[in-house]
Amino acid sequence: MKVVVSCTGNSLEAQVDPRFGRSDRFIIVEADSMDFEVIANPAVTASQGAGIGAAQAALDKKAEVCITGHVGPNAFQVLKAAGVGLFNGSGLTVRQAVELYKQGKLSEILAAGPAKAGMGNLGMRHQHGRK
Amino acid sequence: MIISVLSGKGGTGKTTVAANLAYSVDGAGYVDCDVEEPNGFLFLKPEITKREKVDALVPSINQTLCEACGKCSSACQFNALAQVREKVLTFSQLCHSCGLCSLLCPVGAIQEVPREIGIIEEGCFDGHQFLQGVLNTGEPMAVPVIKQLKKTIVNNKKDVLVLDCPPGSSCSVIAGIEHSDFCVLVTEPTPFGLHDLAIAMELVNTAAIPCGVVVNKSDSGSNTVKEYCAARKVPVLMEIPFSKKYASMYSAGQLLVDQNPELKERFIALMQEMRRLADEAVSYCKW
């Protein structure tokens, strides 16, 4: 089973990035063997729709489960439509998060968080409209 | 002649300047291009006589024809499409109506359909023409509404049109000032005012539109705005000192020129000066 984790480094000891669409990379972990591959998030610098782009990248890698922190409404819609399970791994390393997931101890993300949360306090102001 | 009023920083007095200018100058029309939060109507109190809706074209996917090849979603620069399993999801609000998806679809499953995103309202105040764009609540993209407003203007050979532009210096401001004959940058003498003025000025210079500055609350803050303008040889066309009377009139939705004939004269003089500067710029270009 492939687990996609938003993260801040290139190893299983890296921290889970609580942002999804604006995470700069993802680790794709094969849950049974703990083999992994790191991919850059192609949408990290997108002016809009980063969550959708990131979700698409995860789906292209055949993700069945995704571990992150906050998922915005658009990414949530895409991942849910694909039947991807969403779990909260904030504050953990990638290895801890995947191990806890396998033991059924990670909490599921049941609803989308606010839009643009991953843009820090800039949020909506960097949108297309108003500066 | 089209005059765009912009500011960089929000809340410096764009609408105050634009509305009072349009009201003071004989035959001048007012166009509210700040379609996210149009507020000129509060002061000009126009009678609206015509409403026209603004549509944006967005993809509609025929799921029986769609083969989920992923060509449309991977080509979309705005992440408005996502391919999920055997299905393509659309996010209409993110769509910029470029039409690329429907061109690329190998099986013709994508049709562009109109989606209403706002309206244009037309009317008049005191014999002057009034126009405003209103973006629907929750819509992220103002540009199509502003562009349609500008199309309405092109068909309109009014002597003077004053465009009240959005704050900032992003796409919607660019759509606002495009094809203007003159830009007025309204600012206040604060570090924020100056910072955003400089960005807006860079935009106006890039667009090669002649411009000048109006300093609002000019007797407060510091001298840095005037020094900035002097160093760049940008004329300071008008200074409006802070006045409690103006502030309370503004709060009551009144035009400042209503009870201040001397201020009205100053707006008329501002118009003449802008006309002179715009003519000068045109003759310089021809030369």
Task: Tell me about this structure.
- The complex is a heterodimer of chains A (131) and B (287).
- Chain A contains 3 helices and 6 strands, in the order E-E-E-H-E-H-E-H-E.
- The radius of gyration of chain A is 14 Å and the shape is globular.
- In chain A, 22% of the residues lie in helices and 21% in strands.
- In chain A, helix 1 (50-60) packs parallel to helix 2 (73-81).
- Chain B has 287 residues and is of the alpha/beta class.
- Chain B has helices at residues 14-24, 41-44, 71-75, 100-104, 143-154, 171-177, 191-206, 224-231, 244-251, 261-286; strands at 2-6, 29-32, 47-61, 81-84, 87-90, 110-125, 128-135, 161-164, 182-187, 211-216, 236-240.
- In chain B, the strands form 2 sheets. A 9-stranded mixed β-sheet of chain B has the order 3-6-7-2-8-1-9-10-11, with helices on both faces. Chain B has a two-stranded antiparallel sheet with strand order 4-5.
- The longest helix of chain B has 26 residues, at 261-286.
- Classes of the chains: A alpha/beta (131), B alpha/beta (287).
- At the A-B interface, helix 1 and helix 2 of A face strand 4 and helix 6 of B.
- Shape, per Cα inertia axes of chain B: elongated
Order of strands across the biggest sheet of chain A?
A: 3-2-1-4-5-6
- The stretches of 5 or more residues of chain B where confidence is low (pLDDT under 50) are none
SSE succession of chain B: EHEHEHEEHEEHEHEHEHEHH
Q: Given the structure, what is the number of helices of chain B?
A: 10
Calculate Rg of chain B over CA atoms.
Answer: 22 Å
Oligomeric form:
heterodimer
**Number of DSSP helical runs of chain A:** 3
Helix content of chain A: 10-25%
Number of DSSP strands of chain B?
11
**Biggest interface, which chains?**
A-B, 22 and 27 residues
- Outline the biggest β-sheet of chain A: 6 strands, mixed
The geometry of chain A reads as globular
Helix/strand structural class of chain A: alpha/beta
Find the count of extended strands of chain A (DSSP E, 2+ residues): 6
Q: Major sheet of chain B: order of its strands?
A: 3-6-7-2-8-1-9-10-11
Order of helices and strands of chain A: EEEHEHEHE
